[in-house]
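Quick note —
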Amino acid sequence: MCRDRLCTHSENPSVLLASRRGESRVRIGPGFARSALLIAMRSWRPHLIAIGCVAVLATQVVTVATVATAEAGQPGDDPDGLIRYELTLSARQISVAYEPALRADDPALAALLAWSPGAAQSAVRVGRLEGHRALSIGTLAPDLDAPRSPGPSHDLWLTRTEDGWALDARPPIPDDPDDPDDPDDPDDPDDPDDPDDPDDPDDPDDPDDPDEKDAEETEEADDRPPSRVPGRIPLTHRPRTESADMLTLTLVPDGDDSGQLELQWGRNYWTTDFEFVTLPRRPTPERTSNVGRASSLTRDSDTSARYRAAMLGARNETALVTPDGAHIQVLFQKELGTDGDDYLALASTVADGGLVQLTRGAVIRLRTEVPLRFADTLLPTGNLAPDFPGAYGLWLKKAGIDWRLVFNNEPDSWGSQHDPAFDAAEIALSHVQGDSSDEQPLAVYLAPRDDGQIGIVIQWGDHVWAADFSVAQ
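Predicted structure written out below.
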């Protein structure tokens, strides 16, 4: 019989374990492991709870910080000093960017803008054009036999010729002076005139087989997309009675697949048409298994790109990027023509004080990363959540013989589900009704004005509504 407080053996098959303090003896049996685990959990429960709370809070902080960084979109996201207008039709985009400092009263540009028949040719770089590979504008058009041909990405040069005006579209010149593909660079490692070049085909000590190397380069060239080629975009010119001191470029939709590029500068107004053509569909690879491809998405995956792609499947978008990098975007429903009941109701059933209903589409949606000022009305950001962009639903409202625009704090509602309890502001609209034969579907675009303001223009059939605003400082 062992008399020690701690005993490592016993005549009893069960081993007795005494605590160091000697207050109790615990018999190690079948329930000992569970009892010990419960005691440990009770003693560590406060610490585990604290650790869990800290982990949850840390995760929320990181998530909020990430979302705020990605979604808040404060001015200065990608400032480049240029004004950029973007138009997305049927999920295909065209964008133009230009320098706001180009002024018509610049003596160096006076001769260019004062065109007359027989004048000498001259040109000035006015902006940059980028677009989806289905974009066709001027001589820039997709090569249907080259499915990998890139979309336009060209510098635009306003050119005056003996016959009139045009935009010369030139592939941009690389800004990197150390471009390894520069044939005139004496330090180019691919220069065949380099006497120490190990790949020189005329070098008798070259260990590589030139025929094999040429075959490899040919295969790489076949996989490489074709380079961009210059183009010319003819312009239709019309003189203006009033002079526009600053150059402005505007993208105006006139359908779900087409539109116009408009330029104003000095006493000149130019236009040209563009469209997105239908590209041949790539052949679908033969399916060899009934098992679908596994998804790489997790609960933390960023699905904003997928959400945007799905949204642009049903709506078009016009957008403005300020020189500071702030975005102003407007989404509007596709395929709302003049043959539906909603358009016919404009002339018959919209009473005084009534709203235009869009029973076949979502409400027009405005998103802005900067506060906007419409005359005396300020439209702030953060209306849905602090430090986030402003998001509003836009509703056309009849007011006697006039029209007004209502900004509502429910930007994602359907076009027939207006709740006046969420109205945030209301402004006056100018309204012009033109030729009743115009079949223009519903379209919205942003247009720069001569005085530096920006116009939001809503077109539908023969109706045109507009209001000007400025970016609030």
